[in-house]
Design brief:
Rhopdopsin 7-helix transmembrane proteins, Alpha-Beta Plaits, alpha+beta, 14 helices, two-stranded antiparallel sheet, 4-stranded antiparallel β-sheet, 2 domains, 6 strands
């Protein structure tokens, strides 16, 4: 028996929660990043799902809406799988921030979702996952379990992924994917066990609200110009070091863009900001998942990483210089990107955070002095 009050209340509440999210958005938190795009796709998909589910229950038992019912239910099943699939990509990107990894792994991971969606489309013509009887009443078909299995496969993959790389959560600070998954799992299980009630999309909405709160919190730790973490995030990260039991020694690399004042004077501050943004992209490409990259101040950046030998720092510095050289050789910009670089390890038992930052700052200025003295000798 269909319980219409719970259907209207649950889906109406879900839509209101999601509209609160959408009306709270003043601007993108970090322009164009994949996690934000996926998040908003999931929000819109969930709003659609709420309307679709209400529509399927309202047309249930009405013969004149048989074709509409078939289409609505097919789309409802398809979107459910898509939401679960996108949640896996979201979790992966939050862990690794690597679009190349996404492109390498997730086309293959999409196969179960694609096959399920094809089954949903076929279901419009012949029963696969569900069927409508002569009274247009919904019944589960022989393979009804498949969409549930595929959905839970993606959710389980997210959980396993996060658990397997749980040490990275400390690096990112923000990864409440479990907070998203728990209400989704509870809602879907309740809906599976008690047909005629509506819990699934309210659970998803509660999960999306938790992710939205996370994104809002994260925005205060992200530099708006470069999309990198900011100095406040670095401070929290260094404070957390004492709570960790990692193998390896914490180390930092401080980088300062050479001749930024000259770029500002010659081309204006808009171009100067572009140079800072490009420098951030160069560093992001070089550092990848090997460390945490922050914009420290103005034209200064810090790479925080764990090392087992001094060679790892030098290898990272060489990689950064290589990436900068590739940009300078290939891009037709009115400026070049080069860095003065300092580095050092963080001996937390013997020095404070400020001591550590001052140490690598002094190292960076020594490098800058060497470059300036070299130019003077050439002249």
């Amino acid at each position: 028996m269909i319980n219409y009050p719970t259907i209207f209340i649950a889906n109406g509440t879900a839509i209101l929660l999601l509209l609160v999210i959408l009306t709270s958005i003043k601007r993108p938190l970090r322009h164009g990043l994949l996690d934000e795009k996926i998040f908003y796709v999931m929000v819109f998909l969930n709003i659609i799902q709420c309307f679709l589910e209400v529509g399927t229950f309202l047309t249930d038992g009405k013969m004149e809406y048989r074709t509409l019912s078939l289409v609505l239910i097919a789309i409802l099943f398809s979107n459910s799988v898509l939401l679960a699939y996108f949640s896996v990509i979201y979790a992966d990107y939050k862990l690794f921030a690597d679009i190349k990894r996404i492109k390498r792994i997730y086309p293959l991971m999409a196969v179960p979702a694609v096959l399920t969606i094809i089954g949903c489309l076929l279901n419009i013509a012949t029963p696969v996952f569900f069927e409508l009887d002569q009274y247009n009443i919904y019944h589960r078909a022989d393979f009804f379990i498949i969409p549930y299995v595929v959905t839970y496969f993606y959710m389980a993959h997210s959980v396993i992924l996060i658990y397997s790389y749980r040490e990275k959560i400390y690096k990112r600070l923000f990864l409440p994917v479990f907070l998203f998954i728990i209400p989704v799992v509870i809602g879907s299980l309740l809906q599976y066990l008690f047909y005629g009630y509506s819990f699934m999309w309210l659970g998803v909405s509660i999960g999306l609200v938790s992710l939205f709160i996370n994104l809002q919190n994260e925005s205060s730790y992200v530099d708006k110009l470069t999309g990198l973490f900011n100095r406040q995030y670095l401070g929290n990260l260094l404070s957390m070091y004492g709570e960790r039991k990692d193998s390896g020694v914490p180390a930092g690399i401080l980088l300062d863009i050479d001749n930024l004042k000259s770029i500002n004077d010659r081309f204006g501050h808009v171009v100067g900001d572009e140079a800072i943004s490009i420098a951030g992209k160069i560093l992001h490409e070089a550092v990848g998942d090997k460390g945490v990259l922050c914009r420290y101040a103005g034209d200064e950046f810090i790479v925080f990483m764990y090392i087992n030998s001094q060679e790892e720092i030098m290898d990272m510095i060489d990689l950064i210089k290589t990436q900068a050289a590739l940009f300078n050789d290939s891009e037709k910009k009115p400026f070049k990107i080069n860095f003065s670089i300092g580095y050092g390890t963080y001996e937390s038992k013997h020095e404070s955070i400020d001591d550590f930052l001052n140490k690598i700052d002094a190292s960076m200025y020594e490098d800058k002095k060497r470059k300036n003295s070299g130019r003077m000798v050439i002249k």
